[in-house]
């Protein structure tokens, strides 16, 4: 399943609104087929892997990151039907598909055809890779990642607005990798006016993976860019699974205040700026208690001289501490 998840990552940023699914087929201990959803959403990962496996798919075990689709499409047959017709013996699925057109139907169809089905294997691995698709189906909007590059004291620019470059080359290369896995990248009007950013992917071999660009503004848009008048308009982005918000402070604050950020990438450079422009502004909090238990760190690593910290929005944690529960053993005042 780990190999299937890695394959699924290859299609991220190029398959929306379809998910990028990874698939591995094994027969008698040998890898006979592998696939991932191709650009534009077709063929699906299972179809690609079955085509590669050919006759060796019969009696094989299939590892797939998402429940095989069960609904008909003008663009191709349902993957559950393809797997059954190929005569596979067993299908191991990481995650069920929340799309109501499939949601359990793919599993049921495979079992009805005599295929053994196991679910939940590698779910924790597959969830982050498919987060964009899952969020769009469940919540009706893209999975939103906010990127912030800042100094140790939380500044993103000098008072003059100069911000190039706060972080080093390794951190910037990592950002370009994140861009390549996104369907759309957004900046605010202020960042656009100050920097005229290209927002492209400048990694060798991945130049064609540059995402669509968007600007957050209540004013006029930019030719060739999508325009969002407010963060809530992400709910209208039906063909975007992963949205990367790159700045600046106004856009970051607006998305945080709307509670529409699912993941934060904080690139922290080992420098002090002092007086300068803060990374974010007002985010709607009225007390320190509200700020607690919203975010959990999921990763931290060095990128050259800079440190990357990754935080996930925790929407299932207990309520934050209040004056009513401080001292009862479930909260502290520090």
TrEMBL record:
One of its GO terms (biological process) is riboflavin biosynthetic process. Signal peptide: none annotated. It catalyses: 5-amino-6-(5-phospho-D-ribitylamino)uracil + NADP(+) = 5-amino-6-(5-phospho-D-ribosylamino)uracil + NADPH + H(+); 2,5-diamino-6-hydroxy-4-(5-phosphoribosylamino)-pyrimidine + H2O + H(+) = 5-amino-6-(5-phospho-D-ribosylamino)uracil + NH4(+). Keywords: Hydrolase, Metal-binding, Multifunctional enzyme, NADP, Oxidoreductase, Riboflavin biosynthesis, Zinc. It comes from the Bacteria. NADP(+) binds at residues 149, 165, 191, 195, 199, 248-254. Pathway: Cofactor biosynthesis; riboflavin biosynthesis; 5-amino-6-(D-ribitylamino)uracil from GTP: step 2/4; Cofactor biosynthesis; riboflavin biosynthesis; 5-amino-6-(D-ribitylamino)uracil from GTP: step 3/4. NCBIfam families: eubact_ribD. This is Riboflavin biosynthesis protein RibD. It comes from Sphingomonas parva.
